[in-house]
Each structure stands twice: as C-alpha cells, then as structure tokens.
Amino acid sequence: MFQPEFGFVTGMISMEDKTLSGADPAAVPGAPAAALSDVEARILLSLPDIVWCLDQDRRFRLCNAAFEAFTGRTQRDLAGMTPPYEGAELPSFIRSFMQGSTECKLDREEHAVRSPKTGLRIYFETTQIALKRPDGTPDGYVCIAHDMTRRKALELELTASRNELFQHAYYDPMTGLANLRHLTGKLAEAAAVAGSGGAGGAVLKIDLDRFSAINETVGRASGDQVLLELSKRLREEAERHGDFLARLDGASFAMILQRKTSHDDIARDCERLLTRISRPHFVEQKLLTVTASIGASYFPEHGDSSEQLLARADSALLSAKREGQNTWRIFDESLLDEARERFELEADLRKSIEGDNFTAHFQAKINLQTGEIAGVEALMRWNHPDMGSIPPGVFIPLAEQTGLIIPLGERIMTDACHFARHWNDGNRKPIRVSVNLSARQVMLDDFIPMLKGCISRAGCRAEWLELEITESMLMSDPQRIDELMRGLSALGVAVSIDDFGTGYSAISSLTRYPIATLKIDRSFVHTRVNDGKPSAIARTIVAMARELGIKCVAEGIELAAEADMLRKIGCDEGQGFLWHKPMPEEEFFRWVTRHEKSAAAQ
C-alpha cells in the first residue's frame, strides 16, 4: 500500500510554483498553494489507491483519479470544502476523515462501505497521516484508502474454513455434540484446575445396552433417530446442571460434572440419567425402550489426567455391564485388580487356544417318548492349567470381546465333526451332532468354506451336523442370512434355533428358512413346575413347532417332573442334568453304554 514520506507530502502542499496538474493555481478555485514536479504529479495520479489531502485547516485541497472514479466527484467540485462536506454525498469514511483532530500522527482503520455505483459492499483500509512543520504546528493531512475487499473475502473464507475444520475436529457431525477430542481437552483442563486446589468433579461414561439389537431389528435409520433423541435428552440434562456432554462413538457418550460432587451426588446423577434414557421412544410406529450402563470416576481422587480418568470410568462401565446392565458403577481400586486378572486371563486364553487346554464335552438329547439318545450337543470347555475348569460364562464373553471366539469356534466345530464320524460311521441309526457357534463367526464371509474344511478333514458327512443359531441372528442382516441358509442347505447341514422365545421372535423366518429344530429356553422349562403345569410359552412353542413340522427340544431339564410335563404337551426331545452333565468324549461313551443297558433292562 502507498505510504508517502512526510517530506514529500509536506513539499507537495507547501511549494507554490505549480499546481497538481502543472497549471496555474489561479485556474482552480481554492486550489492548494502546492507544487509538484511533473513526475511527482504523475505518480500521485496513477496510484490505484484512493488518495486525498487536506490543508492545516482541514479544507479539501487535492485528490487523485482513483478518488474521483470512486466518488464521482472531481477535485474542482470539492476544493476548499471542509468536513463533513455537506451536499457532496461522499462516503461517510471520507466525510469524517481527520474531523476534529489536530494531532500529528499516523492512524490505520478499516471501513466497510457500499459502492456508490454498484451497491456492493467494499472494504477499505485507510491510512491517515497528520503532518507537521519543523516547529511542530499542523501542516496538513493525507489519507490513503486501500481497497482490501479481495483480501477481506479471503480472510472471511479462511475464517469459515477454520470454523468448519474446528467443527469437524471437535464436534460429532450427527448429533452436534462435542466429540472425544473436545472432551479430552475439556477434562484435562478441569483436572488441572482440581489438581491445583480448585473445585473437583466427575466424568461419566454412558454406553447404551445392546443398541446393536435396535439397528438389527428396525434398521440403522431408525437407530439413528433414537440416538438423536437420546442426545437431545442428555443435552437437556447437561445444560440444566451446567455439565459438559460429548458423544464418543456409536452409542457411547460422556459427561463431565465440573462441580463439587460426593459419592451420593454421583449416584443421584446416574440414577437420574438412567431414568431419562429408559423412557420409551416411538420410532417407525414402534415403541422402543433403550437402557444404558454408566461408569464414573471423579477428580482429583481418581486421577490427574484425562486419559487416566476416562480409563477408570471405562473400568467402572465394564463392571456395570457385567453386573447386568441398566445400572451404574463408580470406580474403586478393586476394579484395577479385576482388570489385571481379566488381562491375565485373556493372555491365558490365547495360550490355551494354541495348546490343548480346550476340549469338547458332549451332552445327549433324549427322546422324551422312548428314552433313546436322539442327538448330541458339542460344548467347549476350558481346563486352565492353574485355575482348573473355567465356566463358559466367563471365557465365552471374553473370547467374544477379543475376537478369540473365531479360532475357538473352529476348534469346537473340528471336534464335533470328528465326534460325529466316530459315532455315526457304520451306525444304522445315525444321529446329528449340534454346535452352537458365535454370531460373529457364523456371519463371516468365509464361514461356509471353513465349515467345509472341517467336514472334509474329519471324514464327516454334512448331514450328521446341526448348526444352532439365535433368533436375533435371523433378523440382523437379511442378505447375509439368505446366503448362509443357502450355503448350509446346499451342504446338507441342519439348522436349529437356540433359546427360542427369548429374543426378537421372527415367526416368518420359521417358514422362510429350512429350520429343523426349535430349542425351548430353560427359563420356560422351569416355570410353574411346582404345580405340575407347563409354561404357557413352552406349550405355545411346542404347538407351533408341531404345526410347522419342526422338531422341538427342551434344554436345561433337571427334574423328572419337568420331563413328564414336556412329554405330555408333545415336546420331542430334552437335554439337561436330569440325564447327565456335559462330559469329555471317552466318559460320554461310557455313559452311553450304561444308559443303553438301563433302557434295555426296562
């Protein structure tokens, strides 16, 4: 931008031999007693910036062509006029230039004006220079207005881009809530304040329970609507109490309570949030109920960094999940011991899968009418070298979470194929061996090739196998389920629905797919046994299975009275501790021999 030297401008105003254009000063009314060389005059006239000058009494003295082009007023029109130039119809930033100021100084300002010609907004940066004589008295004023509209547009565009980048970097695009990065920074600030003697607080990690089931049953679009509604509810709670809310990922949120809190305060907050979350949602003409689990840690007691506080809230959250969900847990030191034990158990699980610590156990399915063995279920058991037998309820969830369920499932399928060949090879009455695999494995694209490999290597026949899947799997991914069913049907492997009646029942799937067996969950087997009446649900399942031509098996039978009730309502088969617990292969065959002898003696 043009910035004149003081001496040049002073000379421009005080010299008396020429006017700006080189003409006689008397030819321009009120013209300045200023003189410039031809070169100096041409320089001023050719400047792209708008330039105009006042004398020491603030009378308009001269301007350049850029000034005349922008304002539509010539130097002759304005010469001798003083601010605010009444009737001249000049932009306000020109009218007010140096008005009332006599200080000898240099100032810069920004102005936004409308173009007199186009009406478009134009941005100017003005440099205002007050000149002085050697004795310090005012000698005139100069203003240079530089058009910075393009630069301003670029600055605004850059600011908008920065805001957009900030939005993407620190906010969740779907809900508009802060994201994990934003939460981490906010929590670090709060923890630092608390660590230096300021007020403490707490962080809550909120995770929706089994939210994937909603996506599987009503679709992701409806699931997103539920998430948006839950985000709104949580935001209202956060704003009401001055808390900071963030969405971490998927169906997981976090909230910073930056206020003095006690154990009881956090407990009340968790209960309030769980109640608000569990209110039903009406989506796609369906009432959906969502629950959540909450883990909490508070500062500065549980940590001095956001990473430590979030990790400990996560430990409490996992504990709440294991305790049955729809509950909350506040971190305590015992959770660190649990986490350590869990980590060590995971390492042992990996070693045991690679070694020989996992073995298949087998449990017979008994024909309730004849007492004959009608089938066998293969179940995986873990014999830990130091801790002994580890219950499936402990290692199966751990294997699911770590992905180790994939090699574990292949191991049980291999053992089941070998057992089926051993039992059925040369047997005039072959039976099916059933295997309950993880949905995570069954839904893999390479599941059918893996199954074929197990069958081939064991010398087994596909019709000797039965695959147990759950109701929710039938509704999770229709296209993948269609492919799976076609693949199993082509192989000749039978399909059984496990724990029927406990999930999202899909009755239409029973006629759509070639289902061979329905397994009644044990919770319906034990109902009302004391008064000798079967569960209404068990009776309904048996009747429905009979109408559809599907075999019905009741699991978890422990009492003879339960077996009698199920036999009377027409249930085909049963399995449970009434006959025997799952056993290793050799022990199972010894039990089979005893059972057959006992049946023959009767």
UniProtKB/TrEMBL annotation:
Pfam families: EAL (PF00563), GGDEF (PF00990), PAS_4 (PF08448). It comes from the Bacteria. Residues 106-160 form the PAC domain. Residues 199-333 form the GGDEF domain. Residues 342-596 form the EAL domain. InterPro entries: Biofilm_reg_signaling, EAL_dom, EAL_sf, GGDEF_dom, Nucleotide_cyclase, PAS, PAS-assoc_C, PAS-like_dom_sf. PANTHER family: BIOFILM ARCHITECTURE MAINTENANCE PROTEIN MBAA, DIGUANYLATE CYCLASE DGCP. This is Diguanylate cyclase (GGDEF)-like protein/PAS domain S-box-containing protein.
